[in-house]
Amino acid sequence: MKQLFIPFMAALLGGWLVTVAGAAEPAPGAAMGESLQYNIHWTGLPGGSSTLSLQGNPQGYTIEVALKSIGMVAFFYPVKDFVRVEGIQQKQAYLAKSYLKNQDEGGKRRTTLVTFNRAKQQAVQARNKEPPKTITDLPGDVTDPLSAFYAFRAIPDLIPGAHHLIPVLDSHKSYVARIDIIKKERLNTPLGWFDTVLVHTHLKSSEIFRQKAPIKIWFSDDIRRLPVRVETSIPIGFVAADLVAYQDGRGASQEIAH
Prior knowledge:
Blueprint: E1 35-42, E2 45-57, E3 60-69, H1 71-76, E4 80-90, E5 93-105, E6 108-117, E7 122-127, E8 133-135, H2 145-153, E9 163-170, E10 173-189, E11 192-202, E12 215-220, E13 227-233, E14 238-247, E15 253-255
Antiparallel strand pairs: 1-2, 1-14, 2-3, 3-4, 4-5, 5-6, 6-7, 7-8, 9-10, 10-11, 11-12, 12-13, 13-14, 14-15
Protein name: DUF3108 domain-containing protein
Signal peptide: 1-23
Keywords: Signal
């Protein structure tokens, strides 16, 4: 379960320096006020739950992710993680200013804070009581995985066969993530059928995801680009997260009927 834990949703990425397709049409991607709720499964067995939200503020945006394990997974490996990202939005660019990650996994706790200094193309990482580390020579458009995930959703056209290379800073590691747009397909989800766009994300040395297999994400093929399913293979089976409730920030909401 640890491979997908801390958001996955992250999932990910895309080219974030894009322009609005037209002032007369709403821009694609997440709207401020969006809230998403997921059930996480390990090879079909309940493993955890996660929430993901995007809020606007006078300085820009705030992303928050909470994740916890449940059932037998929680018994053998309890997880309770929280991530908060503060950043500025420039058109469809989501540029992180700070990235706070509180991890409580398997009885071990760790707090990591990454602060970006874009003028110097640097970032400073503070982890627990360790001396701060300065990461230098960063690309000017580098951001954290979660901000990159929202920026990808804002790309005007998701065309099968296309791919994007993205500079990402994941804690103290800077790398170029690759995201491939695979195909469009109908997908049956806990919330019903969706027309979707399937993408594969390759995070290479990501500290968050820790796996070699690509992360598969199915986005709704509409202006919202809702991530309705996330899945990745692990040494024993697979881990998947299914969208079970949302408020899209545009006035629409849906949840599983009980």
